[in-house]
Amino acid sequence: MLELPSSLTGMNRYAKHLELSEAKDPKRRAALTKQYCRGWFIGSKEEKKALAKDMAEKHPDVDWAGADLQALNEAQWDAVVCAQMRRIKQDEASLLTAPKGAAWKIEIARLLRKQTTAKNGWIAKRLNMGHPSRVSNLIQNKV
After folding, report:
1. Are 120 and 133 in contact (CB under 8 A)?
2. How confident is the model at residue 106 (pLDDT cuts 50, 70, 90)?
3. Within this chain, do residues 72 and 99 fall inside the same structural domain, yes or no?
4. Would you say 129 and 109 are in contact if contact means Cβ atoms under 8 Å apart?
5. Do residues 28 and 1 both lie within one domain?
6. Whether residue 32 is found in the same domain as residue 56
7. 111 Ramachandran zone, left/alpha/beta (phi>0; psi -120 to 50)
8. 49 and 85 share one domain
9. In sequence order, what are the residues at sequence separation of 6 or more whose Cβ sits closer than 8 angstroms to the Cβ of residue 137?
10. What range defines the domain where residue 70 resides?
11. H helices of the chain, where?
12. What is the DSSP string of 111-142?
């Protein structure tokens, strides 16, 4: 049994399930599988962050591996970014409009590198800082 929530979200997930299960063409089925069956979590970004936080707090002894670990880490890193952006009163749109080397982006990047295992590639992409090597250069240089 699917055990989907009795809501619009649940109905949408059920519709996707039906579409996937009724696909006869192997190429179409593969495309649908790739679209609908990826990642370790199905839900909103906020729900994913809450679950990642809960998992990290309640199960610190669990050794997460592979794609699960990557997804969990990214959710935690994203939570740090969001918290810092709220703290300095920036929004998602400002990530795209602010310069790649903006002081507040460098501050968040430094914090991520100091407190997490986030790599330059993820930081560069999430904070719109350009090439990953630029992150290292900006973090090392005193602004």
Report:
1. yes
2. very high
3. yes
4. yes
5. yes
6. no
7. alpha
8. yes
9. none
10. 45-140
11. 8-22, 26-36, 45-58, 66-87, 92-97, 103-115, 120-126, 132-140
12. HHHHHS---HHHHHHHTT-SSHHHHHHHHHS-
